[in-house]
Design a protein that fits this description.
The chain contains 11 helices and 3 strands; from the N terminus they run ααααααααααβββα. With 241 residues, the chain is mainly alpha-helical.
């Protein structure tokens, strides 16, 4: 038994079906936010209608959280900019849900995921949603907890770098058991004990890359917390740093 397994005190309260439904709803929200600025308004409007109809026919529209519902209901071209940006970045949280469901490998911390691929892999616009939900399986509690711990540590490190407050080697704050459980190799994350960011030590990485990683990890930590800590809604879960 690994150290992280010893630290899991209770069963994960969320069922695989609940996580699958949340991933499908979030995929719909991400896809709607993603077409807000689409130059082909006719095609984009048709796509939005298709996604809304799919949610309704599969009884998923009742799973929408309040601000997600605002995104889905907004006519094309009228979406509040803050909601549009948040909805687009939510794909990084969706990537964590996709991983938790076993649909993907653990995503690199310093690279954005592809919205189209991520929405498709969880089952957006799937014909048999009921079967998809019933057959879903979650990764182990130890793996979900490892993701929570690593995403927290990464988020804290990037925020510290953004504020000019890096302190010591990142390797001292990372448990190797986390990496083992997540299928990560130490050399892909660290160089001389320092966190790697876009193939460079974080201390010398450009600020633009650091800012992008903060945005990535904000959403990934949000999803990781929701999976483990019984937060009632994903959208309103506050990532701690």
């Amino acid at each position: 038994m690994t150290d992280i397994e010893d630290d899991v005190f209770r069963a994960i309260p969320l069922s695989a079906g609940t996580v699958r439904k949340r991933s499908l709803v979030l995929a719909a929200v991400v896809s709607r936010a993603g077409v807000e600025g689409d130059p082909d308004r006719t095609e984009a409007r048709s796509y939005c209608e298709e996604v809304r109809a799919w949610l309704h026919s599969n009884h998923l529209d009742g799973e929408l959280e309040p601000r997600e519902e605002a995104i889905m209901r907004a006519p094309l071209g009228t979406l509040d900019r803050e909601l549009a940006v948040r909805g687009a970045w939510a794909v990084e949280g969706l990537a964590v849900l996709a991983w938790a469901l076993g649909d993907t490998e653990f995503p690199p911390h310093d690279t954005t995921v592809d919205p189209y691929d991520t929405c498709n892999v969880v089952g957006l616009l799937a014909e048999s949603v009921r079967k998809l939900v019933q057959e879903s399986r979650l990764r182990s509690p130890a793996e979900l907890q490892a993701a929570r711990e690593l995403n927290y540590a990464l988020h804290v490190e990037y925020v510290a770098r953004l504020r000019g407050r890096l302190s010591g080697k990142f390797s001292r704050r990372v448990c190797l058991d986390w990496l083992t459980l997540l299928g990560l190799r130490e050399e892909t994350l660290l160089v001389d004990g320092e966190l790697l960011c876009c193939a460079s030590p974080i201390s010398s990485a450009p600020i633009s890359a650091i800012k992008d990683c903060v945005s990535i990890l904000t959403e990934r930590q949000r999803a990781s917390i929701w999976l483990v800590e019984e937060e009632p809604t994903l959208w309103d879960t506050i990532p701690d740093v």
